[in-house]
């Protein structure tokens, strides 16, 4: 592959790494007043707290001091939901297949009711929480998990004659950033919502100011690198906020029941999804909730590649081989562009002796040298950009694959030869003591990739016409580019490195064949 293309990709990766390094660290943000403003007065007139007490209650939203007796565990497929009797919400979720706690926490928590001890009724597929007051008012929160892996959350307030207000706020979910130490993963934390059919995505790592949601909210949620939570109100909700507290980012919806007759009963229904970012499952939520899944600027290209990748996996049942086959297919689809670029580069190399002569002839007149060079290109019918433009057209495909393989949840725990997890570095050897730069793990794939790139560079620079400074530059590039890419890819997911290794091997083979032609 042409050196300019490598250089462009290398610079792009450096920008990504610099962006991750310079992103502000998560901070505890003084947003207690925001919560107070969003929180309606406590529904119990007899227990209505003072303003100072409301602030204190807001601080207890993410309270972790719950005993096991306060938690109810419910398993559904790969997920284990831990419901809290205190507050009646989903405190945390565990993925049995991946053996990880989801970063998504406090799902369905109503801050105004966070200190209420609800009674639990176990449902066939879910849980129901009931809180009654001395005045006879009842709050019921019912979680019913359906066969399509979505969830119906119904919140009913009955016998409400003693209530001052039936308004409340509900936390869609929070992202426990303090649990996630990987800087690269944190940059994938997003608050997502759709208002009037327009989807917005907001990075929430290091969030400094609250983001107001205003207008008819079709759905709102949060997502990390692999998982998401989405709430779709089955009634009109016009207000919400995305904010942060104690290193947790969360989304809150404000439920306005003021139109209900005073003292009457109200019931609010939400369609909820918690789990892997799977478009097919999210479709069941409705309101185009599948649009939560997004792979960045080249989303359409990434989803087309994802379709091909999953189609191949259905046949061979191995994600490593699927990546290799997809890489090969994409290479041959783009081969006409690659061939044109390599052929143009070879023709440019053939002209180097004449260009060197022009440099010597017009060394004291750069303007004439440039004009003579352009006339030479014209006479030889060579476009100096002919080798660059075809490669630029391939960059969207590369970045689409980069986003896809970085975020594709099915690669988690997927094995391939010695690789235990295609979503992580291959970690062939784990050292007891870390080494400088590389840390405590030896990753073989990036080293193999760097070796293949070195030979690829050597083959592309076999022109014997290069002399002087150009020859020195080619020798330096043959070493620097593989080293740079090996460093950039060293901590990348092995699935992504596998793609680039196979692509480099294919490029090496065809570049060698072209180097043998005149």
Q: Care to count the β-strands?
A: 20
Could you list the spans in which at least 5 consecutive residues all have pLDDT below 50? 1-6, 13-62
Distance between the ends = 18 Å
> Which structural class do the helices and strands define?
alpha+beta
Beta strand %:
15-25%
Mean pLDDT across all amino acids: 77
Q: Under the CATH scheme, which architecture of the largest domain would be assigned?
A: Distorted Sandwich
Number of helices: 14
Strand order of the largest sheet: 6-7-8-9-18-15-14-11-12
The CATH first-level class of the largest domain comes to: Mainly Beta
Task: Calculate Rg over CA atoms.
Answer: 29 Å
Global geometry: elongated
Q: Say what the CATH topology of the largest domain is.
A: Beta-galactosidase, Chain A, domain 5
Overall tally of domains: 2
Question: Helix content range of the residues, please?
Answer: 25-40%
SSE blueprint and pairings:
Elements: H1 3-22, H2 32-38, H3 51-59, E1 71-76, E2 79-84, E3 89-95, E4 100-101, E5 104-105, E6 119-123, E7 126-132, E8 138-145, E9 150-158, E10 168-176, H4 183-186, E11 190-195, E12 198-203, E13 211-214, E14 217-223, E15 227-233, E16 239-245, E17 248-255, E18 266-276, H5 279-282, H6 299-316, H7 319-350, H8 352-361, H9 366-379, H10 389-392, H11 395-407, E19 429-435, E20 439-442, H12 444-460, H13 468-489, H14 494-515
Antiparallel strand pairs: 1-2, 2-3, 3-4, 5-10, 6-7, 7-8, 8-9, 9-18, 10-17, 11-12, 11-14, 13-16, 14-15, 15-18, 16-17, 19-20
